[in-house]
Amino acid sequence: CLDERVLIDAGVRKARGLVSVLPDASSNLYLTLTAALANSRLRIVSRAVDAGSQDKLAFVGAADSVTPSSTAGRRMVAEMMSGETTGFLQEMLEDTGGGYRVEECRVTDGCGAVGKSLGELRISSRAGVAVFAIVTADGETVFNPPGDRILRGGDVLLGLASPRRILKVARIVASGRAGHWWKRSRKRPSEDEG
Length: 194
What we know:
three-stranded parallel β-sheet, alpha/beta, globular, single chain, four-stranded antiparallel β-sheet
């Protein structure tokens, strides 16, 4: 995978993402750099050996990096302090049956939800999804956003949802309407039309 020709044959130029989990820091660094040069739009998440290598990986094109030993340590402490919550989150991550998980819905500049409040869209009552956070375009996270929070292009809504329910949220966000917009758009016959 460190051979540029192999990466190109594998489709790195058209790929949307790459996860680099090679065993040593230099290999992950080289793979990240090579892939980023081949596709500047590629989202790369790489394994980091320590905090110092995280900075280097970011410099050569990694959008994010994970230090397994640090992550494992935090998980162990979380398990000790709040085992039920950690167990729930782990079960949710490992569920492959299409159950509930943290899902995201992006608000693009041209969609109908821009300029409307969360309350107006009634996402919770219409789609059965509680939006527990909004990540703004500049990276700020707003937890438990109020109903009067106005949505802007670039916002990302985070909610606990099934993949099917997040599609309902996407429809509501795209249309900017709280109701069943795809049904309302059909013309109903008048009484005169019989």
